Amino acid sequence: MGKGGTVLGFIGIILAAGAIGFTYIVWNGQNTTNNLTGTRVVGIWESLSDNQVYTPYNSLSYWLLEFGDNSLSNTNYISVSNTNTRITLLKAGWYRIHLTVLLEGLNPANLYFIVLLKDGVAEFIFDKYETSLAMNSQYHSIDSSAFVYSNGTNYVEINGYSAFGDNFDVPVSNKESNRLTIEFVTI
After folding, report:
1. Is the pLDDT of residue 29 over 50?
2. Against a cut of 0.90, is the pTM above it?
């Protein structure tokens, strides 16, 4: 092999090394063109329950979700008030709110709703559950997410209600089935 072959060999080695480096960067998610979004968890609550303290959410068929045990709360992004029923989203941007909750005491032939309120107005229905006359369980599990935009002053609450006024609630003792997570979504 002459001089030309040796030069081509070195060029091949350099190109192969570059390809391996590029593959490593893309494989590890460090390529900014493929990694445009990310999330930052800013709040986690467990031990959720129903709260009937605030008018008009003051009955067993029309209540706010109360956020119990808090394992993470980043005060740069969120603030909790109203006996842990209201969360103010302090930083402008998109938030992902994920709710996992167990409802109990459901009655036959009824409609139940779990609704995300933004500034007191329905923004998103986490779940609508209709029971039949021949229902086989008085429990219903919800696992749902919503994306909400905040201007930095908006607040959110979660409202549970029965269309026909039947009482229902969230069992406080079931921590495994009750969790609220809030993430700030970065672009």
Report:
1. no
2. no
